[in-house]
Amino acid sequence: MKWPTYLGMAGLVLLAACHSQPKDRSSTLEEKKREVEKLRQELLKLQSRIAELEEAIRREDTTYGSGKAVSVSYVVLEPKPFSAYLQFQGSVDNRQVVTLTAKAPATISRIYVQEGQRVAAGQLLLEQEGEVLRKNLQEVRTRLELARTLYEKQKKLYEEGIGSEVQYLTAKNNKEALEATVATLEEQLRNLQIRAPFAGQIDAVLVRVGELLSPGVPAIRLVSAGQWEVKVEVPEGYVQLARPGGKVEIFVPDLNLTFPSRIAAVGESISSLSRTFTVVVRDIPAAYVRQLRPGMVAYVRLPERDLTRALVVPAEALQAQDEANYVYLYKGGVARRQRVQVLALRGGEAAVEGLQPGDTVITVGAALLSEGQRVALTTLE
Questions:
Q1: To which H or E segment does residue 307 belong?
Q2: DSSP 114
Q3: In angstroms, rounded to a whole number, what is the distance separating the alpha carbons of residues 177 and 173?
């Protein structure tokens, strides 16, 4: 098999890769990532098959691959930090997000706030109709004034030994009963008001004036500027990777935010249904807090391996054959195959052993090479 046939084989590889590209440009980020991983696996299989065929060809044709030099791209290795991580989907939450509701059924008479408004703790947000209670309260207060006057007079007479004990106790009991009635009516009126339990921002007003509001029906959602957190459920197989204080990376795709953080708490129990445990992250930069919204999707990346000085190659430079990994190095104008051990993977990169700082690793074009083949280095525009 000569050089033209070899180019034809490379063309088939490229054609297969082109046909495998996703056609739906509106696919989500995660779908694109899965598609990339799928294509990489297909490429590795094709590369392995090419290597097998080339070896068989060279046994029958010793001149194979000694023709024109192949143009390839390259990278010169330098040690650098490298972290591989596991990614799990969680959500953003605020520990002080409450949906306020009524304590008693009544028609809404006034709404004092609107969405986006900041309020202080104890501020009146909504009031329900309570005119009947107010009239009853006014009537009882009038009776209470008379009862207090009579009580003071009976008390004075009783202390002077003029009035009877029964008259004194009757006046006292009447006064105290009316005081209790006033307190009850005042509490009932307070129950017709919704006040802010803490300072924050009105996230949503869910009702309108004139509606009948009953206990349990959401009326106003209040969000505090307090403690935000990211919660994620992690499979129990990774329990050794999650420790309080451990480093993590948070990615919020809706805001395109990525920032380092630390684990605040790790759940002690494993869910019997999902076989997961809860990891909570609360260390969020203040500059990002105002952009967050409860319920946002957030990805928590747990470090699986952290290398301070690693030799990192693009994944496209890796070749696989017989369950072994290798790369092609540029040496004296030819490609030399070098076996490597993959230490960790992250996205489109791999940290490897078996190479030295300063090695020139062939990247683009590596799939088309064979041992000892002439190559010409080039760079991508």
A1: strand 297-314
A2: -
A3: 6
